[in-house]
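Journal club side-thread
Mid-discussion, someone asked how the predicted structure for our own chain would compare to the paper's figures. Pasting it here so we can look after the session.
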Amino acid sequence: MLELSVIREDLKEIRYYYSHRDIFEKASKHIGEHACIEKINKYNNVVRFAPARLYELYVSMYLENNTLESLADKEGYSYVHIQRIHGQLVKFFQEKLV
């Protein structure tokens, strides 16, 4: 089982990749795919089996680069509610990732 701190760091790297995806994809044509692609694929494969609410949060935060605050505003929920769901997402990854 992965430590929560490792999962959080992985998620930060995934967010960074997707927020700079154009640069990574352009560079991959000359250098090759960045090693973080393996990590991204691992998390993407696991989240496919998550409850819909966790799946949507993952897509919104990590692929679309939204923050907890912006999602709370956008969805009409409190920051604390979105933060709680994010905690569930991190724990889901902890349970499912080996």
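Post-session note: The longest helix spans residues 79-96.
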